[in-house]
Write a structure and sequence with these properties.
Blueprint (H helix, E strand, L loop, with lengths): L2 E5 L4 H12 L3 E8 L21 H16 L2 E6 L1 H17 L6 H20 L4 E3 L5 E4 L5 E4 L17 H5 L1 E2 L7 H10 L21 H6 L7 E5 L5 E5 L27 E6 L4 E5 L8 E12 L8 E6 L7 E9 L2 E11 L6 E6 L2 E13 L2 E2 L5
Parallel strand pairs: 1-2, 1-4, 2-3, 4-7, 8-11
Antiparallel strand pairs: 5-6, 8-9, 10-11, 12-15, 12-17, 13-14, 13-16, 14-15, 16-17, 17-18
Helix pairs in contact: 1-2, 1-6, 3-4
The chain binds one RNA strand of 73 nucleotides through α4.
Length: 380
RNA sequence: UGGGGUAUAGCCAAGCGGUAAGGCAUCAGAUUUUGAUUCUGACAUCUCCCUGGUUCGAACCCAGGUACCCCAG
């Protein structure tokens, strides 16, 4: 009998995924990962649950235990706190310190859920791991395994899986690939699962929904500086540290009305890390927010390598529509992207993920961005 | 201590005798397994710098203060 270890998070998605696997005839065992320890990791500022008698992760664990009991599967608990810090969080901090905006969850998948956890599962004698991600595994006749967008395009999470390789994909099952979220909730209700109505979790995985700036302050000290209007060069406000902001951001700038000017919303369009200056524009469609070309590094390519330019769909952030781009390999680890038209707020450190139809071809990390021939992510 | 101007929520700013527009910011909620974006809602009620006065009624009129700004010195 094929043995599968499902990552049970204590949420509704993985619970239903576990049920579906069982129904399909697999021998299923659950694995609950714990990757963040607020006390050990010095996570105090802005931590709303620090003083709670039971931290939310323990609540999730209790939920997962109840699900496992109900489904009649064994549940193992694994700590990856050190691995998460070493492979995901230290990278995350490095990126922020460079003034970029990383996506930790993509690296959490690459190094924790689809690597450390996979190894653990293998040691436990499992043939596959499975998760509650919304993504579809497609097995071709020739043995090739492809990863496609989920049937529920609204919940599709292939963006977060863009750094896992073919070998990892081949070792993983995604039971939710062909059903949508409402159906998942429905199944959970039919099974009378305790988590049937549990709210979807958001925020950085394992850390959760938080005041992000306060969270970062635990690791990146505040450093006040000027906010400058990129168009007029006037000082229009003061920030707490350029690291806390990201390109395209509107909230949290604290810029009020300015005498003699029409009151408008301001958007971050450039971060001068060296001089600790935040550049903003007061127009939603300001030219400084756009770019038309990018260099992508850390390429994880799942399809056949091509030297010819390829026109594909590209997401520069989660839940964004596919943007048309022409992709060209510079070398194995570098891709140049020419955009069909200028796109807004493409941000270094974020992932660019490529699609051909529903198939995810791979992805990489946005390294440099250009507009009209000029590099705009560094040096104004 | 000559002249002129302005004082309305955190910031801009309407209002010109009839019972405080709007925007920005902020906060809350929705959306969201990154950071953002987006959407919805809340947000001056011993109140309009202070003290008096006129009036049925004043942020708006009058008088006297106070603060700041500008031009002359």
């Amino acid at each position: 009998m094929t043995k599968v270890m499902i990552g049970l998070s204590g949420g509704v998605d993985s619970a239903v995924a576990a049920y579906l696997l069982k129904k399909q005839g697999y021998e299923v065992v659950g694995g609950f990962m714990r990757n963040w320890d607020a006390i050990a990791n010095g996570d105090f500022l802005g931590n709303p649950t620090l003083n709670d008698s039971c931290c939310p992760q323990e609540k999730d664990y209790e939920d997962a235990k109840e699900v496992a009991k109900k489904l009649g599967i064994e549940l193992l608990r694994i700590d990856f706190i050190k691995e998460y810090w070493d492979y995901v969080f230290s990278y995350f901090l490095e990126e922020y310190n460079k003034g970029r905006t990383p996506n930790p969850d993509i690296f959490c998948n690459k190094y924790i859920k689809f690597d450390a956890f996979l190894k653990f599962a293998r040691d436990q004698g499992c043939d596959f791991i499975a998760t509650g991600h919304y993504a579809k595994r497609v097995d071709k006749e020739d043995g090739v395994v492809e990863l496609h967008k989920a049937y529920d395009l609204n919940k599709d999470q292939t963006y977060f899986l863009s750094q896992i390789n073919n070998e990892q994909i081949a070792s993983c099952l995604f039971p939710l690939g062909d059903i949508d979220k409402p159906k998942v909730r429905e199944i959970a209700k039919e099974l009378n699962l305790n988590v049937a109505d549990k709210k979807d979790s958001t925020g950085v995985c394992f850390i959760g929904e938080r005041n992000f700036k306060e969270f970062l302050k635990n690791y990146i000290p505040a450093n006040k500086g000027k906010i400058i209007d990129i168009n007029s060069n006037e000082v229009v406000g003061e920030h707490d540290g350029v690291m806390y902001y990201t390109i395209g951001q509107r909230k949290g700038l604290g810029i009020g009305g300015i005498s003699g000017r029409e009151p408008r919303s301001w958007f971050v369009c450039y971060k001068d890390v060296k001089n600790n200056i935040l550049y903003v524009a007061d127009e939603k469609e300001d030219e400084h927010l756009f770019s038309d070309r990018a260099i992508i590094k850390n390429i994880n390519w799942l399809a056949e390598r091509t030297n010819d330019p390829l026109h594909v769909g590209c997401k520069f952030r989660y839940r964004q529509q596919d943007n048309g781009v022409t992709l060209k390999f510079i070398d194995d680890d570098t891709i140049e992207l020419i955009f069909d038209e200028p796109y807004k707020a493409v941000t270094t450190g974020q992932a660019a993920v490529f699609y051909m139809g529903t198939r995810m071809l791979g992805g990489g990390i946005i390294e440099e961005i250009y507009y009209k021939g000029k590099r705009i992510d560094i040096k104004k």
